[in-house]
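#dry-run=false #mode=assembly
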Amino acid sequence: MRRFGMSKGKKYALMLGAIPFVMLVFALPLVNRIHPVIFGLPFILFWILAWVMLTPFILLVAYRLEKKYRPNEGEEE
Amino acid sequence: MNAALIIILAVIILSAVVGIIAGRKLKMNLENWTVGGRRFGVVIIWLLMAGEIYTTFTFLGASGWAYSKGAPAFYILIYGALAYTLSFFILPELWKIGKKYGLHTQPDYFIKRYDSRLLGVLVALIGVFSIIPYLQLQLAGLGLIVEVASNGTIRSAYAIGIAFILTCAFVFTSGIRGAAWVAIIKDVLMIAAVFIVGFGVPSIYFGGVGKMFDILIEKMPQHLTFPGATTHMDSLWVMSTILLTALGFYMWPHVFGSAFSAKSAEVIKRNAIIMPFYQIPILLIFMVGFTALLVLPGLENGDMAFLSLVNKTYPSWFLGFVGAAGAVTAMVPAAILVLFASTLISKNVYQSGINPHASEDTVMRLSRFMVLVIMTFSLLFAIFLPNELVNLLILGYDGVCQFFPGVVLGLFWKRVTKQGVLAGILVGTGFVVFLILSRNDPFMGMNAGFAGLLINMIVTIAGSLLTKPVIQRA
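#status=ok
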């Protein structure tokens, strides 16, 4: 198996990757409410949809950071 | 013959033909059959993964839960996004190992990583037992969809039978490539149907999504927050179920295996980034379920909400179109599921466990034979023991999520041992089975499968620290 060297980019990427878990799992009891209704959606549904749609952008930033700190990643195969 | 019937039959036959053509020029060996020769680029991986993710469950189960249970259904919108986030970190590493050692299946990985055929056989067996309810779910859903869409002119059992023959045919000839090609037809039809109906019904009955929610909030506000219309699905249940399904997602033998079919680790990583956008149709499906709750209250079976509302709202040819989309949406995942279940049995139970000297030809022939056996079993279950759709699926997740510690610790922690993983899987699975049989699911407010996974994780780590790891030859 490959050694799991924690490069700086990987560390940032993992920190970013934790955001959706915090917002979409651990924060749920705090947002379990209907009001305020936003864009016609009950607040909880709006919250979930917003973070689901933000996830690809979070991952994109993580991807860029990984690349930036380890530019040779692609040549490993 | 009505219009709906003609559309349904035409689409499923066309799909099977496309699936068969897909593999016409390929010499079928295990490498081509299970991982498509490891040549799939971004587009075909996208199609294949969407093919696996949007199943009949998406159509019927998600709208059914929004209808009958309310807010707890939101877990379905969430867990995919988290699973893709995990896959961003895990799958590229997994792909590299798969490429390096020529792995085809999930048990192959366990055998290689832990140098233990016993572990491989155990993982294969749990995998097959988890896949069968999932496969049954596809067939049962297909039967339901076609029966309703054809206005009862095709009985459910016949529909399942026809789909069974067609699906077996293209799995037989083309393997995973057949499934990927049919997935093109499936994705286009499914997404079109969901967008038309999802935006359509709230507008037709209430003049828009926002207005529909206004009425729902006024009439039954409790439906829209946890625990919704249920008593036991409160926040803790939702959170544990999300974690269980997000961690279990890529532990399904077929989803795990599809990762090997990518051309490079880079393809998988890029795919993980765009995947969360696939969740949008699920939101639209919820809208259909909620609209049905207001327009058609009191349905006996919530899983019928989507179809009943389409039936009430649209002309019969459109119902046929939805039925056709639904039928192909069952056939593609069914094909992938049966393909991997049969390979698990032939390669990892038979070759790894019983007869290590079996030739690749024998394994390939046995795989094809097992396609028939497994499909027949699921067919009989689907016809004689139909069940509520989501429950079946969660049961499968309880099984496959037990692989998570072995897979992930295996990738990132040198110290993990086969004894630890073996003990973790046995204790975790045993605990889940005990909780379900003794009717303790949910357990202390948590999903029983998640409780099993926690125990599994603790046992795996403790067991690994108490034993010596095998020396890595990598």
